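Record format v2
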Amino acid sequence: MTALIVGALIAVAAVVLVALPFLRTHADDDRLDAPTPAEELRLALIEERDHALGALKELEFDHRTGKIGDEDYRSLVGPLRRAAAEALRALDRPQELPGSTANPDGG
Amino acid sequence: MADLGRAALVVSLGLALYALIAGTAAATTNRRRLADSARNALLACFGSTAVAAAVLATALARHDFSFTYVASHTNRTLPLIYSLSAFWGGQEGSLLLWLLILTGYGALSVAVNRRLLKDLVAWVVPVIGGIASFFAFVLVAVSSPFDTQTRPLDGAGLVPSLQNPYMVAHPPMLYLGYVGLTVPFAFAMGALLSGHTDERWIIATRRWTLAAWTFLGFGQILGAHWAYVEVGWGGYYAWDPVENAALMPWLAATAFLHSVMIQERKGMLKIWNMILVALAFELSVFGTFLTRSGVVNSIHSFAKSSIGGWFLAFVVISALFSVVVIVWRLPLLRARTKLESALSREAAFLYNNLLLVALCLTILWGVIFPILTQLFEGQTRTLSRPYFDFFLRIFGLPLLLLMGIGPLIAWRRTSSRGLLRTVRWPAGVALVTGGALIVAGAGSSTPGLISYTFCAFVLTTIVVELVRGTRATGSLLELVARNRRRYGGYVVHASIVLLVIGVVGSSAYSTTREHELRVGQSMSVDGYTLTYQGQSTARGADNVQTNALLSLSGRAGGMLKTGVYDYDNQGLAKAVGIHTNWLRAEDLYVIYNEFDKQTNAIDFIVLVKPLVNLIWLAGFVFVAGSLVAIWPDAREQRRLAARLALARA
Amino acid sequence: MRNPARLIVALAVAGVLAIFLLYTALGGDSMPLLEPSSLPGHAGTVSLTGKVVGPVAGDAHSSSGLRFGLHNITGTSGTVPVVYHGALPDLFETGRDVNLTGQLSNGSFLASQMTTKCPSKYTAAKTD
């Protein structure tokens, strides 16, 4: 008898949980809140910025710990700084969506 | 009671299917409420599976022998802890445990990431739902733990060698690992299906993957320790298919953990990472197929079971699915940058990956070799220890060396001059160590000597890295806190070094001696003298214990007991005697081999296993390193949240 | 260097294959895995798997060895007489499934290594 009751309770609880989202909100805001293509593009640029800044930090650290010599450091730091600056500039620029669907990985 | 269990599993199946179908519909049509509903279904599935699990656990605790499963794996005299651990002692129970962990992990990972990755998670839910549906289906229709029978007076009991604390912990730990690998797989598929193949899915699943990998690794060490103390042949790993079934996904996951670092930094190896994560997942399910289908001859071989076919079908279908999805999304997986130099940290990670995958695949080849020869030649042939040991050395030694060189190389590129400069100290220490070892007599084993030299190299690299880093940042704690993954990783590397030292010491440099002793007689092995004092017999709960007592002198003192237990209706099992010499981290391992009734002499097999305890220590260091790497980083969390906020601004 | 990654991978795959081919060419050391019914006629060292049948006599440690019979685990087969010298594995008894390494000699299987299969944790397939 208890088994039957518990079983019924589980089934009811499951149905309630599954139906809950439909009972709570209106059908109006039913869109999956995914980033829009414009937001995707921005996200990609932000990641680009973080990568560039991260690479720069790593270069500094490797130089300080002696993994990279002064010569190698000098040759590598310039391009990295430029890449970081460019990424920061790109973020500040108003983003234009390319004609076709945006590829977030900017290939 | 069994009805409740069965009903709960049917509910689980229904919910999993709903998560699969509704989740797919929601993701394709972009409907939020349906997606939320599918996600809730996963949570509810965990709930109903938990109820089923509770039913089984209660039946086991109560010795309810009307459950066929309970009767087959326990009996009245079994202590509670072993009655409960019988949950995963049999096929049906293990499957239930798998489903429980899967739905638990699934529901949690999806809940945690639901805000940051809504679009991706919408696809993750049906993937997990699909996998859960398979397991639930098998539990409902093929192999149910809730079959009943007329209640017998007593159950069959648990195999004596499994009545051991390690065997209580080993399977759940392994399952937390195996099943845990489903999460990165599901997120990877989610990333592909949703079209968002950037690094977000990697960052989201990073800790899950690390945790699963840690459980899998530690679970294997537990298993090895059990084999060492319980099975009693003096070894801890036999390249048995069941053991390899855990090692292969672990190797694939290790490769994955390294290569994602390249994807995160350089946007490279995206396709490779997708393949790796799918490989790790498929290997974990394939391993289950191998061990349960009876298809491969193993010391652990279980009787041929019907679920083998189902598992094989699942592996094939899920593998095909992964391939199709990866190929479909190939255009999105183009690399952002290229490898700049063969002498760079990126390249080092690539070499590491190649070696790990090569080792993984050669082990896989060795495992399925009997199946293939049977299929194509009509005759079963097996590959054994020499094959596996050979390839372990061929791929393992360079891997070990790479563990030492990799950290010394800079990102992007390092000049050979620069590398020579940073490698100075570790190479010097290694060479000195090698020389010292030769003098100490370790030259008796060339692979052993090479391994130890490489270990010294790696350990010095780790120390050098810590010293240089501390100098640069000013504080060791600050250094580690700022880069937990790297330094946690170094601790894990140190644990691997300990493991290698322990394995090499206890195999390449161990001594074995066999001798028959009468009471009062002695034998000497490697500086230990053992004197047989006599034996006694006593009645245990379900066995008759015969123990021989030996007194030790020389390198160790005290007494050592080794014996043989005659289990009622099961046969004889050895209870080896182990004396640990903590100073040398070595074990004196004594096996009671044979009793000669005519002469009253006992044939003892004595092994001296140098440094074997470093293997068990390595297990703890491994977990410690992983914890450092896994530890949540508030700074990183804030940065990720800020990213999303900025994108939406 | 233009894109060393591809070159590295190609070289690596070639290297692995080369090692592999060399190893298997130099005598792989795969061993036939047989059942008692398929044993007759096989020369050389083989791995034999079967179920122990009584009577079990002798002593694995003595010169005449431990003697018992072995037949197929599933299905019918004749019984192969086994003579075993070596350490007795755990839980050895009549009815246990064992794996032996040795060779056929004068109608008997002379074995030097034996392992018992961990008694089945998993029950056999249920036939409906």
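The beta strands of chain B are 381-383, 511-517, 522-525, 528-539, 543-554, 558-567, 571-575, 577-581, 586-596, 601-609.
The longest helix of chain B spans residues 345-377.
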